[in-house]
Amino acid sequence: MRRELSMACFERASPALKEILLKLYRAEKHVEVDHHLYEFGSVEYHIQSPAADPNHNYLSISTPLLSHGVLHSYGFSPYTIRMLKEVCSDAVEIVEPPREGYQLTLKLDFSKIPSEKESEKVIRQISSVQAVILSSQLKEMLENVNSQDVSQGMYKPIKLVYHPREPFYVIKQQQKITAVFPMRFKEPSDVIIATAFFQELMDVGSSEKWSKAPPCTWSPIPPPELRGEPLEDLSTNGGFVSFDISSRHVEGKKLDKTVWSLLNFYAYVKNHIKCTRGFIQRRMQKRLENLVEVLHKENQEEEGDVKKVKENAGCRYVRKLVRFPKSAMLKQRCGEFSKRMKRIRFRIKIHGFGRFRRRWLTIPKLSSPMRYTKID
């Protein structure tokens, strides 16, 4: 038995579940499988291919209750069951009652899939069962947006749990339904990026180009519709994002698109923050590389200048030696000669050589041509 954990994504069909079912379908011989797969930390799939029944595979699903008001105590609502039967093909049969610990069990017969070309499409539909369950419950609420049983006030907010740590609210009002998302983030930098994104979303939504989209509002404090809700649900650091959904947003095919956008709003915001953070980090790294390159170039130029200065200083020193005065050079040579003579004197003693040296080997005093002589 294997257990895996899958991350959240924008696809309706579970990528991991689709991959497993395709492997079972394309296997040349029967493979016994007992596989557990988890998504979003709260959705569980159990795939079984027993040896006792090689012609069938079983898929059991455990999903969180999107709304206690929509789900019945004994299982899914008739609306959800009808949506499931419309999506699933002839190769899928709903097992009653479901396996213990799960809300839905499907029996899969791959031999009834018409051809290889249709297999991937059918398996994709089977892998999107969990998305059908969640969206069908929210569709049931939004389809009654124009119902006449709304009083002058408003209904009590319905708390919907798509992810255990990311609930949102649906408030039914006259001629519209308001969806409110409390936003929470772990990192302070994520709060800054998200706040800028929400403000830009409001500005874009208020433009004429997007006038047909559901109006969006953001506020750092809870909206009045959520008064009386538990304090832990209203404690946020990212504020509250609200969408007003009217009847024109749920007409025909727009209903499915609106529902899927609401269910994936949290995932969309997280993806935007992740991409923005990555973009900022890449820009900062690029700027740092450019700065290091400039500093390295300046260091090379400074080293070259210092080397040139040293070379020029050496040349000046040589020129000074070349231009050394002749009198000084003569004195230096005579001094060296006298030192040699002293060394010879210490070795060999000749009588009368002292007088000879003082008379004939005395170094004459040379005067500089620039010196002045006082005239009496």
Automatic annotation (TrEMBL):
Q: Which UniProt keywords apply?
A: Actin-binding, Cell projection, Coiled coil, Cytoplasm, Cytoskeleton
Q: Does the keyword Coiled coil apply?
A: yes
GO BP term (any one) = Arp2/3 complex-mediated actin nucleation
This protein's source sits in the domain of life called Eukaryota
Where found? Cell projection; Cytoplasm, Cytoskeleton
**Record GO cellular component, one term:** Arp2/3 protein complex
Please describe what this protein does. Answer: Functions as actin-binding component of the Arp2/3 complex which is involved in regulation of actin polymerization and together with an activating nucleation-promoting factor (NPF) mediates the formation of branched actin networks. Seems to contact the mother actin filament. Arp2/3 complex plays a critical role in the control of cell morphogenesis via the modulation of cell polarity development.
Subunit note: Component of the Arp2/3 complex.
Q: Which PANTHER family match?
A: ACTIN-RELATED PROTEIN 2_3 COMPLEX SUBUNIT 2B, ARP2/3 COMPLEX 34 KDA SUBUNIT
User: What is this protein's record name?
Assistant: Arp2/3 complex 34 kDa subunit
Q: Which organism is it from?
A: Hevea brasiliensis (Para rubber tree)
Taxonomy of origin reads: Eukaryota, Viridiplantae, Streptophyta, Embryophyta, Tracheophyta
